[in-house]
């Protein structure tokens, strides 16, 4: 069912100089203290925001900005707001809004085990991204309570999510990283595994220690690393062949350094799930002989089941933590109950449902073009105008409190936890972040203290500047909005 992108020994550099692209912000954005005391009229907002966007640093970049009154819809500032931009994780606003509208905040994803015949069980995965080893233990305890102590064959039915496990338009470095884990009918521990590289005596290869010993037998290790002298610089490269089972480790770690953990995405989610389930069964004293992956079978005799948290909690993880796996899963779940043409993927069906649902919400279909649910693809194109329409539409929806609660709060939670601290925007800006190479975005709500509530979208594209520089400018704009007063 699944197709794989084949990449031979793509290097992922892990060091102080060459690290994974961070998906969350860890540095506080400095805002000049004097700004917090300013007060501006609505007519002055444009010139103040232009002064930030038109700095020499940003001469060649593209800005897309829209600021409106949330209640009246009056536009207070616009800059190429109807043009397409790469939105990064602001795409998650569309995905989560459509899912809440389509499925409801209380929707849960069920994973079931059915008795097919004596000794033969079939586990049906329906795309729950929240499953952990603890949930698998709950499943196996239910089996034990039913008197099941021996399983001849356990079949993993992956028919619910029909899609490439890796989105074809994601970049190679993304699918090699923990934030680009594959999505499917079965997901456990967010489809990630971890190894620890432990320094030895100087000149010796680093020791590879498995956090999950069950995975050690799956991978072949080509260890070309070395333990360097004390205080040497950490320079490590881990390469994984996406179509095979080889991990190539190169570089050095100082003998005095602490063990270095590397988290990587699995190659085959179905069999990874079965391996983790086998471990859980063993702990309950249930023997398991054969495993297989197949589709179809009876759903008459359910002998065990677990459910995800409600969708309201899944969208919180999606937006507050900017979790790509959860976003793609939510998109696929929207396709589960929809008719599907032969060969049509769950992603494409989910995107059709998304478009229909957002149109009903008042979002213009021509304002966006999306190919995934997370925003990791650079092929996604969304206008600031469309993002504001989503935010405005959801503010009038019955799901408004749930949707707003799923967004990071400036200086408080998620990907905004370390932004806006000590500024007038702390605690009153609620917005979704987005970052990929050359792109920074922020769209959400602002309860301006001396003005009416605002809705805004700010996207900057095509920049060679570091993300921290772009974020600082975006944050300055938001702080400027807090200075609005009625004139």
From TrEMBL:
UniProt keyword Disulfide bond present: no
Signal peptide feature range: 1-27
Keyword Metal-binding: no
GO molecular function: serine-type carboxypeptidase activity
Protein name: D-alanyl-D-alanine carboxypeptidase/D-alanyl-D-alanine-endopeptidase
InterPro entries associated with the record: Beta-lactam/transpept-like, Peptidase_S13
PANTHER family noted in UniProt: D-ALANYL-D-ALANINE CARBOXYPEPTIDASE, PENICILLIN-SENSITIVE CARBOXYPEPTIDASE A
One BP annotation, GO: proteolysis
Organism of origin: Brunnivagina elsteri CCALA 953
Stated family: Belongs to the peptidase S13 family.
Record key words, sorted: Carboxypeptidase, Hydrolase, Protease, Signal
SUPFAM superfamilies given in the database record: beta-lactamase/transpeptidase-like
